[in-house]
Amino acid sequence: MCRNIKRLRHPDHAPSDAELHDAALQFVRKISGFHAPSKANQAAFDAAVREVAAAGRVLFDSFQIRGHERAAV
User: Fold this and answer.
1) What pTM, to 2 d.p., does this model score?
2) Which residues of 43-65 are buried (b: 16+ CB within 10 A; e: fewer)?
3) Which of 56, 53, 28, 24 lies closest to 41, judged by CA?
4) Residue 4, CB-side half-sphere exposure with 13 Å CA sphere
5) How far is residue 12's CA from residue 67's CA, in Å, rounded to a whole number?
6) Pairwise CA distance, residues 70 & 34, whole Å
7) 41-67 pLDDT, tens per residue?
């Protein structure tokens, strides 16, 4: 589907908030069919980008990486 979304899982660090936002933006653009939504749809579009990025952060924070202990949060 989104062939040009780059891989965000790196062996030595989690993705940055900017990387997650950019990937979420590209994903929401793809599934919504809007590159730039109208003013009437802008709030819904922006909320979707935030929610997808947040879900990505939860995903990466939940991964168990072999050889690395999770830091106490």
Assistant:
1) 0.78
2) eebeebbeebbeebeeeeeeeee
3) 28
4) 5
5) 11
6) 38
7) 999 999 999 999 999 999 988 887 666
